[in-house]
Amino acid sequence: MAALYHFTRFDDPAALRGPVMEQCRALDICGTLLLAAEGLNGTVAGMGDAVERLVSWLRALPGCAEMDIKYSTASERPFGRMKVKLKREIVTMGVEGVDPARDAGLYVEPCDWNALLARPDVVLIDTRNDYEVAIGSFAGAINPDIRTFRQFPGWFAEQKAQWEREGRAPPAVAMFCTGGIRCEKSTAFARSIGCEEVYHLKGGILKYLEEVPAERSLWQGNCFVFDERVSVGHGLAPTQDRMCRACGHARGPDGEHVCPAGE
User: Would 99 be classed as within a structural domain?
Assistant: First the structure.
């Protein structure tokens, strides 16, 4: 399996849909890829070297040579079929003019993340949705308590306004998300409204859990993932969390879970 994304400028994403689907079918790839004027995003799976061959093909697309890839394995075929979808955004924020390819915050490697968080002037923000934060986050992180990423810009703008009402300049801000894509946009948005010192975790939580030993980790709990594993822990080891069929959120191995669908 490969989770991948890249912000770049596609002049005609609709013209790419057919060739991308044709390539995936030829390699017997399953999963979902999203195409938009701002780039591509998705998760795919295949047998043998099929995924690596697809990744090589995708990296040959305009501006995609540095595309971010996270590999993992699955014991069973994780997706029923292949879908290539055209979207307005590859991760939906709903704010016009935000350009992550140009304006994203400063990347921080997982090995340097702990040192950044040790700074007393850094405000740490989890950019994920409430049900993701519920099963794990970094110690001391602010939870925006949002149900969708569309709510993040309004929440963050209010945070900045509160700092200004208190007579404070915007602090240094560190943001993180599952794989990095939401932080590309959230940090670009923060910079667009006047926050100057903005950082984000390169490769997201998943890269941190993969590279930082558990004994040095500041991560607490599990990390929700959007596939059949449901969540992972340190070393990207699958946990015993299971998916609630009613709401699509994670529940513990003993079924403990407050379901927003009321079941």
Answer: no
Q: What is the reported pTM?
A: 0.85
24 catalytic residue (yes or no): no
- pLDDT tens digits for 75-93? 788 888 999 999 999 999 9
Residue with tokens 């040579």: 65
Segment 147-178, tens digit of pLDDT: 999 999 999 999 999 999 999 888 999 999 99
Alpha-carbon span 178 to 182, nearest angstrom: 8
Q: Which of 40, 157, 131, 31 is nearest to 89 (CA)?
A: 40
Please count the structural domains in the chain: 2
CA 151 to each of CA 122, 144, 145, 156: distance values in angstroms, whole numbers, following the listed order: 22, 9, 9, 9
Q: Which amino acid is at 50?
A: A
Q: Are residues 148 and 178 in the same domain?
A: yes
125 lies in which domain range?
A: 106-251
Query: Which residue among 24, 30, 177, 195 is the active-site one?
Result: 177
As given in the structure block, the two tokens for residue 137 are 């986050």
Which residues face 45 on adjacent strands? 30
